[in-house]
Design brief:
Elements lengths: L8 H13 L1 H28 L5 H21 L2 H9 L5 H19 L3 E3 L14 H25 L5 H17 L6 H34 L4 H28 L8 H27 L6 H6 L2 H36 L5 E3 L2 H29 L5 H21 L5 H33 L5 H13 L2 H15 L6 H11 L6 H33 L2
Antiparallel strand pairs: 1-2
Helix pairs in contact: 2-3, 2-13, 3-6, 3-12, 3-13, 4-5, 4-13, 4-14, 5-12, 5-13, 6-7, 6-12, 6-19, 7-19, 8-9, 8-14, 8-15, 9-10, 9-12, 9-14, 12-13, 12-14, 14-15, 15-17
């Protein structure tokens, strides 16, 4: 049909369809353009600042690689801090990105520290590298290898440890530069152990808190009354955990406290705020329906605070993964030699802080969705348990001297609550089947009435009701076909197995892959730089 200007509505709709189809491509182009603009800005700034210094060109290249690494940390690692809050709908995706970007940058700039270890985790011996040029090439190769692996992992939708990525990079480049004897294999063994320790501790603690919430609140007949009693206790415990976590990990470079001092400060803060929290929960709970959903809403504000505090601590603690090697290269170029510690200039810290915030804004949503909704379904109570696991696991690990990864802890917490839900679902299905089997021969109305009563009963009353059934009617006799059918019901999966296998595989290969890439890059860089 022609329009008044001689056009054709069919043609216009075709153009609209093409424009809509091109939408994702346009967005990707804009993201790549923004990232390139950031790296070009770093290049120009560093060139103006150090272009006349001997070795200044190396520093320009290193700064660009450091910016690229910071972008990838923001894209991959920050999702663990805000993903559960987004998945539970305590925060919108846009709100989570804003909060995480602001607090990551604040953590990096306020508490990121003035000095950083040049050899991360002591995984290689710097004494065996006496030539500053070799050290610079090693650090550049390690930084670029870690960034490339993070980029690939983000594209695959796998949240991995940025610390392990840079550790693998330093190990691989170190071996390429100084041979196998340069590596501290005992330290590498401890890092490998963290692949198991971190997710298991995170999962067990998260599942434990979820079970505590279920037993004390959601399994009670009067859920609102139970919530008024227990939610303030849980939030106060969270205040203790997060303030202690922040003092131990986030603020350790500006206010160094022992574990016991940090715990005492956290306990004092939680105790002083308990009455205020109790009044807040009492007011929020007033007039709410006696449902699980009503209880769920009481955890919204604590989750927002948790996302902000986790982001701050992450920015303060993990910014060294982006700028540590860059600070080491800067120190080696300006002062010569290989130092075990390097000062972090403000401009280097800004590269890390801005890069992490920008990487999160441009590419973070993919991993936020993976952690928040693609592994298992999260509500606010489950997300609260994951946040608690993240803080408490780091506190325990710091005290026990165990190597842990914040990424592995958070993702392990997600899997922990998911597998607990599976277990509870199967257990409940089993109990319902027992009830139906014990009422065999009775009318449907009687069975449904008993099931309704059973569903409303407390955990202890459920146990008594099942015991009475078995006592009065004996064990139910089920045919082989019925038992086979029930086993299929029990196999209902609430954790996405493909996500489990993909993430576990990515964790296992992070250090080896980063090491191999770094070794190859070191040989390439050395080949280019040697006369």
């Amino acid at each position: 049909m022609p329009n008044p200007k001689g056009g054709n509505f069919t043609e216009l709709s075709g153009f609209e369809s093409l424009d809509k189809a091109a939408g994702p491509g346009k967005r990707e182009t804009l993201r790549i353009g923004a990232a390139l603009l950031f790296i070009v800005g770093i290049m120009l700034f560093t060139w103006v600042r150090a272009g006349d210094v001997e070795g200044g060109m190396l520093l320009v290249v290193a700064a660009m690689i450091g910016g690229y690494m910071a972008l990838n940390i923001g894209a991959n690692d920050v999702a663990n801090n805000v993903g559960p809050a987004v998945g539970s709908k305590a925060l919108t995706l846009a709100g989570a990105i804003v909060i995480a970007a602001v607090f990551e940058a604040l953590g990096a700039l306020v508490a990121g520290g003035d000095v950083v270890s040049t050899i991360k985790k002591g995984i290689i011996s710097p004494d065996l590298i006496t030539d500053s040029q070799t050290f610079i090439w090693l650090m550049m190769a390690a930084l670029l290898a870690g960034a490339l692996w993070l980029n690939l992992a983000t594209a695959m939708g796998a949240p991995v440890s940025t610390t392990h990525s840079i550790v693998g990079g330093v190990l691989g480049a170190g071996i390429a530069a100084g041979g196998w004897q340069i590596a501290n294999w005992g330290q590498m063994g401890a890092i490998a152990a963290s692949w198991v320790i971190s997710p298991v501790m995170g999962g067990v603690i998260a599942a434990g808190f979820l079970m505590l919430i279920k037993r004390t609140i959601t399994y009670q007949p009067d859920k609102i009354l139970a919530a008024r009693r227990w939610v303030p206790v849980l939030i106060s415990l969270m205040l203790w955990a997060f303030s202690t976590y922040l003092l131990i990990k986030g603020l350790k470079r500006i206010w160094a406290l022992s574990f016991y001092e940090a715990s005492a400060c956290g306990l004092a803060l939680a105790a002083s705020l308990y009455l205020m929290v109790k009044r807040y929960i009492t007011r929020k709970a007033q007039g709410r329906e006696n449902t699980k959903q009503s209880v769920n809403e009481l955890f919204t504000l604590p989750l927002i605070f948790a996302a902000a505090l986790l982001s701050f601590a992450h920015g303060a603690n993990d910014v060294a993964n982006a700028v540590g090697p860059l600070a080491a290269i800067n120190d080696a170029i300006l002062h010569g030699g290989v130092a075990s510690k390097a000062t972090i200039p403000v401009w280097v810290m800004m590269v890390g802080a801005l890069g992490i915030a920008l990487g999160l804004s441009l590419y973070g949503p993919k991993l936020i969705r993976t952690v928040g909704s693609e592994i298992t379904e999260l509500d606010k109570m489950r997300a609260f348990c994951i946040a608690m696991a993240a803080a408490i696991t780091v506190i325990l690990a710091s005290q026990l001297g165990l190597p842990v990864s914040s990424t592995h802890i958070a993702v392990g917490g997600v899997f922990g609550v998911g597998f607990l839900r599976e277990y509870l679902k199967k257990s409940y299905a089993r109990m319902v089947d027992e009830i139906i089997a014990h009422h065999e021969g009775e009318d449907q109305e009687t069975i449904e009435r008993f099931l309704a009563q059973f569903q409303k009963a407390s955990l202890n009353d459920k146990r008594i009701m099942l015991q009475d059934l078995k006592k009065n009617r004996g064990e139910a006799q089920l045919s082989k076909a019925e038992r086979k059918s029930l086993r299929k019901v029990y196999k209902q999966e609430l954790v996405k197995r493909s996500a489990l296998y993909k993430i576990a595989a990515a964790w296992i290969i992070t250090v080896p892959v980063s090491a191999i890439i770094a070794a190859m890059l070191f040989y390439m860089i050395r080949g280019f730089m040697l006369p």
